[in-house]
Amino acid sequence: MKLAAALALALVSAAPAFAQTAPAAPAAQAAPGWTGLTVAEITGRLTTAGMTVGEPRTNGDRIYLLVNDGPLRWVLTLFSCTNGACPDVQFTAVFAGPNATREIVARWNGDRRFVKAFYAAPETEGGDPQAVAQFDVLLHPGAGAQQLDDPIQVWRSLSMDLGRTVNAPAGGAAAPATE
């Protein structure tokens, strides 16, 4: 017992000798005056990926783009916009179907990363419950509009997956995702 206490004391008192100061991280170099990607850059990237984008709608510092992506319709919200440039975006899609339940949405979330869904109770009596998918993306200076390419692919894959999950017939194969 005395030996263990002596070893512990020796290790604690020697610890400062092993400590080293980590080198300082380089300061982030933000582009001077960069306030985000422009609506035209974002819209261009979406259309290049084969989507149809509606006219932008504005509400304060937010801009909303309605996107038609094959069978799926969703909204891209551009946040914190200044002079038509926005530093972050949020993808959102809403699905109603027989499997839009708290349990199925919770299970879907537990098995997926990046895109998250939440259950939305029916707004009216007898209405359909919904599953809402969202994906937030922070944009970076100097990376250009192509920085949206990977998030677009992640969004397409996982939002379609949630749509199939929510619309799957009981005990059957998944139906195509629709809104």
Topology:
Blueprint: H1 2-18, E1 37-38, H2 39-48, E2 52-53, E3 57-59, E4 62-69, E5 72-79, E6 85-86, E7 88-96, H3 102-111, E8 116-120, E9 130-138, H4 149-167
Give a written overview of the molecule.
- The chain is of the alpha+beta class.
- The chain is built from four helices and nine strands; from the N terminus they run αβαββββββαββα.
- The chain has helices at residues 2-18, 39-48, 102-111, 149-167; strands spanning 37-38, 52-53, 57-59, 62-69, 72-79, 85-86, 88-96, 116-120, 130-138.
- The strands form two sheets. Strands 2, 3, 4, 5, 7, 8 and 9 form a seven-stranded antiparallel beta sheet that branches.
- A hairpin with a 2-residue loop joins strand 3 (57-59) and strand 4.
- The longest helix is centred in the C-terminal third of the chain and has 19 residues, at 149-167.
- The N and C termini lie far apart (69 Å).
- 23% of the residues are buried.
- Mean pLDDT is 83; it is low at 1-20, 25-30 and 171-179.
Amount of beta strand: 25-35%
Estimate the helix proportion, in percent: 25-40%
Distance between the termini: 69 Å
- What are the segments in which pLDDT stays under 50 over at least 5 consecutive residues? 1-20, 25-30, 171-179
Rg from alpha-carbon coordinates = 24 Å
Number of helices: 4
**How would you sum up the global shape?**
elongated
Mean pLDDT: 83
Major sheet description: 7 strands, antiparallel
- The beta-strand count equals 9
Give the topology string: H per helix, E per strand.
HEHEEEEEEHEEH
Structural class: alpha+beta
